[in-house]
Design goal:
The protein is mainly beta and about 240 residues long. About 10% of the residues lie in helices and about 50% in strands. The chain has a 13-stranded antiparallel beta sheet. It is globular.
């Protein structure tokens, strides 16, 4: 039987459908920073609150030197996006405004402020331009290799993204390029389903230029907690010590 070739946009649509965010979510994560050779390891614990399409906030719970450091992102991925960083040691909130600031590292991790804002959503800022279908010896699909190009007017730091997607349309790896070439590699090693929502619970971002990586392993997930509302995402709450 003749099968129609799959189109790049169709693959991207299926990927985005897999990673559809719940209305609200609270997670606690173990974050490990290290050099690519495994040396210089540092472990942090963070808590994140997400309200879909409205805001997300992340605070470090430990170690002591990072406790209370937080970032608040309101209206992520939209023209009215605003990012605030709170540093308890200085008792002040700093606004992350320019594109160059948003592409910089968040507190020494390999995730930029822009990475925190966009997550695994690409449709707003990128156009799917080509797809390569890789098949196994038996002819079944093993992987889709999808190329995305940044849309005109987007301020995301990556000019091109190459997604490696499995046969069920889950991202395994994202190669992130800027004008100088391959910059970072994001790997998704584990996804779990919570009440119908697929949540990446184990990911790693590798910065090939810094020769450094940050892995995130989510230990606790709360889906659609009723108490989490828009009124939570304020600078006052960003300043408050984490619980």
């Amino acid at each position: 039987m003749f099968l129609l070739a799959i189109m790049p946009q169709e693959v991207l649509d299926k990927v985005e459908a897999n990673f559809r965010e719940p209305r609200a979510m609270i997670t606690v994560s173990i974050m490990t920073l290290s050099n690519l050779d495994g040396s210089g390891k540092e472990v942090r614990i963070s808590k994140t609150w997400v309200l879909k399409d409205y805001a997300r906030m992340t605070k470090f719970l430990s170690p002591a030197g990072q406790r209370g450091v937080g970032v608040l992102i309101k209206h992520p991925g939209t023209p009215s996006e605003v990012i605030y960083l709170y540093l308890p040691a200085f008792r002040r909130v700093r606004r992350i405004a320019s594109s160059s600031m948003k592409s910089s590292s968040f507190q020494g991790t390999d995730f930029s402020y822009s990475d925190l804002s966009s997550g695994l959503s690409y449709k707003k800022d990128y156009k799917a331009t080509s797809v390569e279908v890789k098949k196994g010896p038996d002819g079944t699909v093993e992987e889709y290799v999808l190329t995305l190009v940044r849309k005109p007017g987007s301020h995301r730091p990556y000019s091109r993204i190459v997604l490696h997607v499995d046969s069920k349309f889950f991202i395994k790896k994202a190669e992130l390029y800027d004008d100088k070439g391959l910059w970072k590699v994001l790997e998704v090693s584990k996804v779990k389903n919570f009440f119908g929502y697929n949540v990446p619970v184990s990911i790693a971002m590798k910065d090939l230029r810094r020769k450094h990586m940050t892995s995130i392993d989510i230990s606790t997930v709360k889906i659609n907690p009723p108490a989490l509302k828009e009124s939570f995402f304020t600078i006052v709450n960003l300043r408050r010590p984490p619980k």
